[in-house]
Write a structure and sequence with these properties.
By secondary structure, the chain is α+β, with helices and mostly antiparallel strands. It contains seven helices and five strands, in the order ααββααβαβαβα. It has a five-stranded mixed β-sheet with strand order 1-2-5-3-4. 15% of the residues are buried.
Length: 292
């Protein structure tokens, strides 16, 4: 009996020992596995740590590169803004240059036109000087005899005949010497082609008194001018190139305070009417007047 119980105890202990050993071995294996997993985890952690460190280093390098790139970009933007401002300044300068060039071209065109007009005016002036000189030569005999003067008045060539030689005081009847002088002048004028002539009557400022035919100096000067025109037509000057005008006492050439001055103011002016169509700028003036 006792031996049987002892046997059971021994068997139990043996079984228990076997169980504990088996559990121990199992726990040992599990511990080994755990340690292995832990070691693997440590390796993985180490790898992750290395990778994180590398990534952090790469991130720092990338950030540094990004900062460098941003700095370059900012510098580039600054340079670009400066370039844009310079381009704008150059464009403005070019625009102003083109405007100045256009103004210069316009000024050159105007200057060229003005120069051409001056040359045309000079040519016309030279022509008129030659005409004046030729006129003096043609009338030299009458000028030397004191019957005629040749003058330039208001840009016009004028033959001046003192009325004291032509007419009596307060009269519009030509004297014999006066008629001869007018006929001689007309003989020369009819040889001048493409010109018109205006006969102007002038008096001094002495009022006409007790003259039933002429109530004032206007009428006397007008009558004298018409008599000269008629005499010139008789001498061969064509009527279509002649006209008559009266200025009375209102265009004196000298002072009426002296007898000499009054005598100078009593005169017949034969004006050689200038041809405006030969003057520079006449075409433009005509267009402006006609509204074309």
């Amino acid at each position: 009996m006792k031996s049987g119980i002892l046997g059971l105890l021994i068997l139990g202990l043996t079984i228990t020992g076997c169980v504990k050993k088996s559990m121990y071995e199992a726990q040992t294996l599990k511990l080994d596995d755990t340690q292995a997993e832990l070691a693997s985890a440590k390796d993985t952690l180490a790898d992750l740590t290395d990778q994180l460190t590398k990534e952090k280093t790469d991130s720092d390098e990338l950030r540094a590169e990004l900062d460098k790139t941003n700095a370059v970009l900012k510098s580039t933007e600054t340079a670009l803004d400066a370039a844009k401002n310079r381009i704008k300044a150059l464009e403005d300068e070019l625009t102003n240059t083109l405007k100045d060039k256009a103004k210069l071209k316009e000024s050159a065109t105007k200057l060229k036109k003005a120069l051409a007009e001056l040359e045309a005016r000079k040519a016309e002036a030279d022509k008129r000087v030659r005409e004046f000189q030729n006129l003096i030569k043609k009338f030299k005999k009458l000028i030397d005899a004191g019957k005629l003067k040749v003058a330039i008045k208001n840009g016009r060539m004028v033959l001046v005949l003192p009325t004291d030689i032509l007419f009596g005081s307060g009269s519009a009847k030509l004297s014999e010497d006066g008629e001869a002088a007018i006929s001689e002048v007309a003989g020369i004028l009819k040889t001048i082609r493409k010109k018109e002539f205006q006969v102007e009557g002038h008096t001094d400022n002495v009022p006409i008194n007790n003259n039933k035919k002429y109530k004032n100096n206007w009428a006397l000067a007008a009558s004298r001018a018409m008599v000269v025109v008629e005499t010139m037509i008789k001498a061969g000057v064509k009527g279509k190139v002649l006209s008559a005008a009266s200025y009375g006492e209102f265009r004196p050439v000298a002072s009426n305070k002296t007898q000499k001055g009054k005598a100078a103011n009593r005169r017949i002016d034969i004006v050689i009417v200038p041809d405006l169509s030969n003057l520079p700028g006449f075409a433009e003036l005509k267009k402006a007047i006609e509204g074309k």
